[in-house]
Fold this protein.
Amino acid sequence: MSAVQKYSGNDADIRLWSFPGGIHPPERKAPANQAPIQRLALADEFIIPLRQHIGALSEVQVAVGDHVLKGDLLSAPGIEHGLPVHAPTSGEIIEIGEFPLNHPSGLSGPGIRLRSDHLDSWGERKPLADYQQHNHLEVLEHLQHMGIAGLGGAGFPTARKVASAQGIDCLIINGAECEPYIAADDRLMREHADEIVRGSLILQWLTHAKSILIAIEDNKPEAIAAMRNALAQANENTLATQASELALKVVVIPTKYPSGGERQLTQILTGKQVPANGLPADIGILMHNTGTAWAVCRAIDHGEPLLERVVTLTGEAIRRPCTAWVPLGTPVQHLLEQVDFQPEAQQRVIIGGPMMGFTLPHLQVPVIKTTNCVLAPTRKELPPAGPEMPCIRCGACADVCPASLLPQQLYWLANANDYDGLKAHHLADCIECGACAYVCPSEIPLVQYYRQAKAEMREQAIEHHKAEIARQRFEARQARLEREKQERLERHAQAAKAREEALAARKQQPQASDDGAPRTPAKPDANTDPVASAVARAKARKAEREAARAESKESPAESATEAAPPEDPKKAAVAAAIARAKARKAAKQKDEDS
Amino acid sequence: MSFFIASSPHHHLRRSTADLMRLVLIAMIPGVLAQWYFFGWGVILQLILAIGVALAAEAVCLLARNREPSSGLRDYTAVVTAALLAVSIPPLAPWWVIVIGTLFSIVIVKHLFGGVGHNIFNPAMAGYVLLLVSFPVQMTSWLPPATIAQELPGFWDSVRVLLFGFTGDGYSLEQIRRVDTGAMLDAVVMATPLDHIKTELAQGYTLSEAKSAIIFQGAAGTGWQWVNLAYLAGGLYLLKQRVITWHIPGALLGSLGLLALIGAVFAPDSLPNVDIHLLSGATMLAAFFIATDPVSAATSTRGKLVYAALIGLLIYVIRTWGGYPDAVAFAVLLANLCVPVIDQYTRPTVYGHHEERR
Ligand code: SF4
Ligand code: SF4
């Protein structure tokens, strides 16, 4: 960690590295970042999805007709990994069912509908005063119960992310906010710097990190100043008592997209790369978003579950662009009504920024923990993609790729459905940042091709497993038929022999009765061997558990668009099925050998 | 209401292939003007002819391949190919030379390989080599620059020479090319500076003797050096507009210059010096306009450096030991052939995979 030195009060002593590629799209943070964060009118109805991005489904604790207070538990973390869901405001539960998800897939998922009573009255809040008096596990559990998840990127449960990270050197608080238009973190840092610092210190305490780096792009001078101020304060108060060795500083990084990507920011601050298929923790780094640090602080100090977040409402189709505190579950429709949304023909409504956001087919989806921006651009402002022209192999895409991929090569391979080639060219390391498509003079929607190819490759892997299982089944069946045939022949031969012997015996002793002939006892069916099948069952169960565990270890990607959650159980199911088939095969093999 | 669905990113730099190609054409203007000043109207006529033929051929090819012709024509790639070929051939070469060359470039080299983006070879250079091999006489009949020419044909005379081979007064191209050398009684047919050096050196003259000829009234041959400087200016404009990066021109000129320097140090009397190599022939045109053709160049940054350095090396080798005075076209085509290999070995290390590479 040569990059991290002891805090000297001077931020110039940190060396910055750079990552390859990157682009400088127009930033357009104004006008949304100009005014303080607003409070908009409370919506009449809220939709709270039970599965918020990553994490398994949680169990519903309320029934239709129940009256709940703000912060009340709606669903408990039933199975291992689920995050609990809380009431964003006080009101009545009016429906438990399927609702459209705030997700690129446009699918529906289970959720709870709550009608607000517009009183917004809090239920009981249980702060964890003096968290340092508790042990780490209790604090982590508290964070889990408060539903704290990453507010940038993939929405990974914070407690799990912290708990799984061992040997952390450096805690990075990501305030880069490199996507154009988005100003949620910018405003939060300007207005709640002290809470972010406090949350960062809690996270540092949990991870034993030796330093905290708060990274902010140099296009946010006000946020930088506010965070520096808060740090100076913290240095006077907390730091002296908490950890005298702690290096805590604001690092100003050059504005370049996508510097806020977890992997890119790691490289900027440390010069090291997160190993492929690895996590930043592998090189001693843990990264959290500024919003997450803020939420941690609220949960510990005030006992507030994660109920609201800052959302940027911007784009020229919105007449009153701003940043706003938005209770989770607020329908996007309601939000846009509050800011004078004037849709034009073929209006796009984008969740997230112009580089990585996804468009909504309709506005009946709720704001969730990762919704940092609702962007409604006019056609003039962000013209829709022009016609796709042939690739001229100009290499502009390769020049800007932050992952040092060869986007044009990936494009050829994706077009040719050459999945092996795609693997060899590391399509999996594409973070879908969109820099390549941004510069492509032929306006090829490169990222769209990659997403498609990735989906097809996932599908293919599943198909492959299925085929493998089918092949194994077929082979096993062939073997069984063969064996049965052999046995039958053997039985016939033995029976014939017996008959012959009986005949011979009868000839010798004609008085002996017919039914005295010895019969070959039927061989016991190998498949019903109780011990073997029990072993096989146990193996299958173990494999299933292991598959589930492996699933839960899936890496959180702060900036990459995460895999569709509905796929996860499916994947686990496939893995379990494979494991079962393998166990069955092993058991059979054993039988055949014996 | 339902909203428009689109895939990210929703923003685009808005610089299309057509924009890039237009900038390339704009950047060629100084070089073309210099050629016009020193060699007369021929270059303009060749340009008009080549571009017309190229557009027609492109449209027919696209129609034959069931593509929408307007979209293909709008990307200007055919125009750039035609322009590069037109400025590379002798200005008063007969009309059918450029027509054949352009047709070959567009129809065979570009479209039979699958259209824009699929061609392995630089179409303009492939066309040039075909012409050079097929019509060596016409393709080496360069005019003397205006500063030493007895008289440069005017616009209409140029048209006549192009179409019929004779000026209005009945002079043939051979006669126009004659230059009064002063020293000798007879005017001699003028060769290009590189050509001249090559012949003289082959006849046992030293470099300084060869350079004493009237055509070397500047560092690298009068006229030619200004043409090269003009293309250099256009190339710098392309760099500034970020149409190209410095890698290809830098590596090409660097390797050619370095080799010329080494040659000049070890054999100052028999090998041309750096200035001749860099400012003669088509060096600057090659460095900024031809080798930078994205389709046929290597793709990664490191690959581009290797590719361009290879072109520089080949130019030097062919100019020095090969059978042709200028070598840009051959060098570029040979390097085009190497691109797949270069691309294979210069793949950048993907993020997070540094460990595996070691
Ligand atoms: S930027 Fe577009 S046209 Fe250029 S090489 Fe990449 S994909 Fe091809
Ligand atoms: S989207 Fe993927 S390929 Fe394109 S620039 Fe980003 S990481 Fe590279």
User: Anything to note?
Assistant: The two ends of chain A are 58 Å apart (CA to CA). The longest strand of chain A covers residues 91-100. The mean pLDDT of chain A is 82.
